[in-house]
Amino acid sequence: MTIKPIKTESDYRKALKRLDEIFDAPPETSESDEADILALLVDDFEKKYYPIEAPDPIEAIKIRMQELQLKQIDLVDEIGGKSRVSEILNRKRKLTVEMIRKLTNKLNLSADLLIIDYQISRQ
User: Which residues are within 8 A (CB) of 63 and not within 5 positions of it... i.e. 6 or more apart?
Assistant: First the structure.
């Protein structure tokens, strides 16, 4: 097992290829250990060079609604009325602290994600 830091795109591609080859190695083997280490190195490289931004609160809500197969009407108790849900999801109005509290519980989303500032539509 020869493992080196991933410093270049070429190193990254080689590491991914090797990781793909040994991904299903039996536990407690040298290849399994190598896969664990390579996965950490690949993850570190990806976080540094390919960061994934968290979605804004409205996108996060929409994504979670889709995952849970919810419709706008399903958020009436948390947001307050069909028109209010529509205003929030169409970025006409900002989330309130009370809405964030309720949505955190209903959608199992982090409050940290829902309090991120976002732009509202000026139409």
Answer: 55
Domain shared by 69 and 106, yes or no? yes
Q: Convert the pLDDT of each residue in 20-68 to its tens digit.
A: 999 999 999 999 999 999 999 999 999 999 998 888 999 999 999 999 9
Mark whether 68 and 41 lie in a shared domain. Answer: no
Q: Please count the structural domains in the chain.
A: 2
Same domain, 69 and 103: yes
Q: For the chain, what's the residue count?
A: 123
pTM of the prediction? Answer: 0.62
